Amino acid sequence: MTSTEKCVYELMEKSWHFILVRDGDGWFVKVKELRGCMSDGKTWEEAYRMIHDAMRGWLTVSIEHDLPIPEPEED
Fold first, then answer.
1. pTM for the predicted model, two decimal places
2. Which of 18, 42, 64, 75 has the most CB within a 10 Å radius?
3. How far is Cα 30 from Cα 42, in angstroms, rounded to an integer?
4. Number of H helices, E strands in the chain
5. For residue 75, what pLDDT is reported?
């Protein structure tokens, strides 16, 4: 596992807030704290899986380009 992969894994374990919205025949989902990190799916389960893929990509790019990554908001 590379250092970037390890960092992404650790960040994925944090308590992020997901916003899930019914959108026509499917579902739209985004991570509240990660600007521009969004996805969709035909079912809410698919949307939930897809947002995790989007998060891994978002976090990887941010780490590789030394961009700031916000902390999850507290409940």
1. 0.92
2. 18
3. 15
4. 2, 3
5. 76
